[in-house]
Amino acid sequence: MRDVHTVIAATSRRTDADAILASVHDPYAFAPVFDRHFTAIHRYLAARLGSDVADELVAEVFERAFDARGRYDPAYPDAGPWLYGIATNLVHRRRRDERRRLAAYARLDRDATEPSPAQVVAERADASALAPAVAGALKALKRGDRDALLLVALADLSYEETARVLDVPVGTVRSRLHRARTTVRAALIDKEQA
Amino acid sequence: MNDIEELDAVRQLNPTTQPSAGARVAAADRLQQRIDRTHGHRSRRRPIVLAGAATALAVAGLVAVSVIGGGSDSRLVAPADAAQALGRVADVAADRPDATLQPGEYWYVQDASRYLTTVGDSPPYSALGSTELRETWTDRDGNGRYRSTSTGQPEFLGPRDRQRWKRSGSPQLSGRGPGQIETQAIRSSGFTAGASTLTYEQLSDLPTEGNKMYSELRRLAGDSGPSPDEEVFTIIGDLLRNDPVPPRVRAALYRAVAYIKGIRLVGPVKDSLNRPGVAVELDSSGMHRRLVFDPDTALLLAEQDVLAERVSYIDADPGTIVGDRLAVRQTIVSSDDARP
C-alpha cells in the first residue's frame, strides 16, 4: 500500500533509530545514517586495516547495515555501536590483513638501524615511536581482547556499548580490557626501559 | 603509565585520518545502488501503518466502483485457485456500471489507516500507532485537497514499547490527539503510478487485458520498489484504492495480479472493519502483503501487511496485521469540500 497524497506522521527529531525505522518502508530514509557515521566508521576501519582496505570495506558496512535495517532495535537511537559491530565483523574477515599490518609496524623497531641523535630526541617527544611496541602487543592479544580495546580506544565506545557490539556481558568487556591493557602496558614499559 | 596513556598509545599507533572525498563518494554510490536495486521509492514515502483499531473509526457506507470489460489472459503464473479468484472478481468488476469524472467534479476517497510514530529522546525508545481517517478530493488534472482527522489516542503496539516509555519517564506522546485535523492542498500534474505520473486520460486508457496491463505496470514501475513484481503489486493496490480508473481498467488490474510471481490465494478473510472478503498475498520484506477484495462488488476493501516473522522494530508476533489501510468510500462529488 502506498499513499499518493500521503502525509507522514511528523516527528520533530530524526534519530538514527527514526531513520532506520522509516527506511524499512522508505529505503531512502536510510541516507542520514550514512551521512552521520561514514567518517567515524572509515576512521575505525583505517585504524585497524589501513586506509586502502578501509576505502574498500566501508561501503560494505553500510550495505550490510541497510540490508539488516529491519532487525535494528529502535530502543537505541544512536546506530554507531551497531555500525561498529558490523565493521568489526568485517575486520575479522580480514584478520590476516590486520595481523600483517601489525606485524609490519612491530618490525619497524627490529628493522631500525642505529638511531641518530635527532631520532632519539624525536622519540622522546613523539609517542608514535612506541608504535612498534604497541603493534606487537596488539598482535599478541586474543581477538576478543583486541576488539574490546580498539572499540574503546578508537571508537570511543563505552563499556556498555562495547558489550553490545561484541554481544558479551559488560563484565566480560571489563576483563578483556584489563587483560589487553596489561599486555600493552607491559610492552610500553619494556620499550621505555630498553 | 596509566590507562589513559595506554589508550593514547593505541590511538597513536594509527593517527586519525580523514577519509578521502573519493572514498566517501564511492561508498555513497554503492549504497545508493543497493537501495535502488532493492527498493526504489524515490519521491514518495511509504508510511508504516499499524494494525487494528479501525473499529474506532466512523465508517460510512461503501460506494460501488463500477467495472466493465475483461480480456484474454495467458502466461498466468498464479496458482490456479488464486487465478480463479482474481478472474471471478474481475468478471464482477466488469459488470459494474461506468462512471466518468467530468471537468469540475472531484474523485472523493475516504480511507482509514494507522501510522507508526515514535516517542522518547533517549532509550528506552518506543513505537506507537496513530489512527487517521483520511479524505482526498482530486479533479481530472490531479489537483485537489487532502484532509486527515486523527481519530484516536496513539497506542503502544505491545507491552515492551509501553514499558520502555514508562521507564523513560512517560514523556509526552507524539502523534496527534483525537479530532485534530490536518489539511493540505494537492498540486499535481496527474495521478501517480509507480515511477510515472499519468493524466486522467492516460489513466483511462490503461490496458484492459490482464497480461497487457501487467506489462504496462512493469514499465510504469521503472526501477521503483523492492522488485518489479512487488512494485506492480503496490501500484495495483494504489490504483484500486485511490484513483478514478474506469471500470474496464479496474477489471484488468485484478487480472494483472495473477501475473505477479509469488501471488497466492489466502482465501476468505474479514478485514479490520469485519467486512468479509477474499485475500491474495505476496511476500515482501518480512511481510505478507495482502489485497482484500469483496468478491460480490469487486471493491478493494483493504491492504494489509501481516508480519511474517518477529522483528525488533515492531512489538508484535508473526501473524499480526501490522499494516492496515481500509478503503471506506470512493465516489464522484461536485466540489472539493463535498462529501457523498
Structural overview:
The complex is a heterodimer of chains A (194) and B (340). By secondary structure, chain A is an all-alpha fold. Chain A has 2 domains: 1-93, Rna Polymerase Sigma Factor, Chain: A (Orthogonal Bundle), CATH 1.10.1740.10; 95-194, Winged helix-like DNA-binding domain superfamily/Winged helix DNA-binding domain (Arc Repressor Mutant, subunit A), CATH 1.10.10. Chain A is 71% helix and 0% strand. The model of chain A is unreliable at 1-13 and 110-127 (pLDDT under 50). Chain B is of the alpha+beta class and 340 residues long. Chain B has one domain (54-333). In chain B, helix 6 crosses helix 8. The longest helix of chain B has 18 residues, at 21-38. Chain B is globular and about 80 Å long. Chain B starts with a helix and ends in a 7-residue tail after the last strand. Mean pLDDT of chain B is 77; it is low at 40-74. The interface between A and B is large, with 70 and 82 residues.
Helix and strand topology:
The complex is a heterodimer of chains A (194) and B (340).
Chain A: H1 16-23, H2 31-49, H3 51-67, H4 80-93, H5 95-111, H6 117-125, H7 131-140, H8 143-153, H9 159-166, H10 170-193
Chain B: H1 3-13, H2 21-38, H3 80-94, E1 106-119, E2 126-138, E3 144-150, E4 155-156, H4 159-167, E5 181-186, E6 191-193, E7 196-198, H5 200-204, H6 210-221, H7 228-242, H8 247-257, E8 264-270, E9 276-284, E10 287-293, E11 300-307, E12 321-333
Antiparallel strand pairs in B: 1-2, 1-12, 2-3, 2-4, 3-5, 6-7, 8-9, 9-10, 10-11, 11-12
Estimate nothing, just give the exact number of structural domains of chain B.
1
Give the helix/strand class of chain B.
alpha+beta
| Overall number of strands of chain A | 0
Please give the largest β-sheet of chain A.
Answer: none
CATH fold field value of the largest domain in chain A: Arc Repressor Mutant, subunit A
Number of strands of chain B: 12
